[in-house]
Amino acid sequence: MKKRIAFVGAGALGGYVGGSFTRLGHDVTLIDAWPEHVETIRAKGLELDGVTAEEKFVVKNTKTLHLTEVQSLAKTPLDIAFVAVKSYDTAWATALIAPYLAADGFVVSLQNCLNEEAIAAQVGWGRTVGVVASIISVDLFEAGRIRRTVAKGGDKHTVFRVGEPHGRVTRRVEELAEWFRGIDSAKVTSNLWGERWSKLVANGMGNGVSAATGMSSSDCARNETIRRFQIRLAGESIRVGQALGYPLEKIRGLDPERLALASEGDGAALTEVESVMIPKAGANPRADIQRPSMAQDIRKGRRTEIDAMNGFIAAKGATVGVAAPSHVKLTQIVTRVERGEAQPSPALLGA
Q1: Based on the structure, what is the number of domains in the chain?
Q2: 3 state DSSP class of 141
Q3: Which of 9, 35, 267, 294 satisfies CB 3.0 to 4.6 Å to 84 for a cystine?
Q4: What is the DSSP pairing of strand 128-133 with strand 4-8?
Q5: Is residue 213 located within the same domain as residue 306?
Q6: Contact between 30 and 15 (Cβ < 8 Å)
Q7: Are 72 and 83 within 8 A, CB to CB?
Q8: Which domain range does residue 174 map to?
Q9: Distance between first and last Cα of the chain
Q10: What is the CATH number of the domain that holds 287?
Q11: Domain boundary among 139, 161, 190
C-alpha cells in the first residue's frame, strides 16, 4: 500500500515538493492556512513551474485541506507528515498533525532554520526527521501557482539532504531520499546538524540582506558593499557554528574556512570567494525575479524568520562567546522594515 503523506504548509517549498510527489504517484494531502490557495488548487489544480519548459505542469486532483478540515484525517492515520511552515509556526503545526499519525508515523521538517527540537518536543526524537533543501528558491507568487527560480542541481549540486537527528542511516531516510530523487538530486546525510547550520549560514547571508535592501539575490552579489557585508555575515556564522562543534559542509559551493577567512581580511581568500559569488551574466534566466523567502515575505506584508535566522545566530554566538555584530545589525534593520518603520533600501546597509 502507498504510504499516506501530508504536508502541513503548502506554500512555496511545501507546495512544490508536495505537488511534485503527487505527480510522481504518491498519496499526498496538502494542508494550508490560505483559503484562496486551497480553493484554487481544488478548482484548477496546482501549477508548478521552473527555469525550463519541461518543469512547467499542472497537478490535477490534488487532495487539499483547509486547516479546519484536518480532523477528516482521523479515518486513516498518516505515515509521514512534512512540516513546511515558517519556523515560528513549527510548534502549533506539529501539534496540529501529531494526533493523526499512525503508531509508527513520523514528522519531517522541510524548513529553513533548526526546528527539529521544536518538532521533537511535540512528537519525540524517535519520530523526528530533517530534510535540508540546499540552494533551492521557490516562490508562491499567486494562489495555486508556484515557480522555482533557480536551476535544478542535478549532478552538480545535491539539493535535498535527508537525515536523522542521531546521525545513523535508517531505512526511512533512505526511502525519503529516493522519493526526493524524483524531483532533483538527493542524498542521505549522517551530518544533519552540520547540514542545517551550513544552510543557516547561507540563509543568514542572503535572506535578510535581500529583505532589507529590496534587491534580488543577483543584484546583492553584484554590489560590492552589500556583497562584502554578506561575506562578513557568513564568516561570523561559520565561526559560531564551529564553536558549537558542527562539522560544516560547503556553503554556496565554497569551503567554509575560506569564506570565514575572507571575512577576516585574508585577501587571497576574498578574491577566491568573490570570484564564485559574483553572478555570471545570463547564468540564471530568472535572476531578475529570484528573491529568497524573507524578501518574498516583506513584499507580501508577512512576518519574517529574521529571529530564527540572523537573530538565532547572534544569540547562539553569545552563548559560546563568539560575537556576531553583523547579524545583530541585520536583525534590527529587518525588524524595522517588517514593522513598516523603514522601507527596503540598499542605503540601510550603507550602499
Answers
A1: 2
A2: strand
A3: 9
A4: unpaired
A5: yes
A6: yes
A7: no
A8: 4-190
A9: 57
A10: 1.10.1040.10
A11: 190
Q: What percent of the chain shows pLDDT beyond 70?
A: 97
243: exposed, middle or buried (Cβ count in 10 Å: 0-12, 13-18, 19+): middle
- Identify the residue whose cell numbers are 538565532: 312
Q: Which of 146, 161, 190 is the last residue of a domain?
A: 190
Give the pLDDT band of residue 206 (cuts 50, 70, 90). very high
Report how far apart, in Å, the C-alpha atoms of 179 and of each of 2, 3, 97, 171, 323 are: 12, 12, 21, 12, 40
Nearest-10 Cα torsion for 322, 325, 330, 333? 140
CA distances from 55 to 31, 40, 41 (A): 23, 20, 18
CATH number of the domain bearing residue 164: 3.40.50.720
Selection from 297, 350, 324 nearest residue 85 by Cα: 297
Q: Residues 22, 28, 29, 33: what is their CA dihedral angle, to the nearest 10 degrees?
A: -60
Please, what is the average pLDDT of the chain?
A: 95
Q: Which of 138, 195, 185, 189 is nearest to 159 (CA)?
A: 185
| Residues 176, 33 within the same domain | yes
Nearest alpha carbon to residue 34 among 8, 4, 16, 5: 8
The alpha carbons of the chain give a radius of gyration, in whole angstroms, of 20
pLDDT tens readout for residues 213-250: 999 999 999 999 999 999 999 999 999 999 999 999 99
Dihedral pair phi/psi, residue 191, rounded to 5°: -125, 55
Residue 61's pLDDT is 87
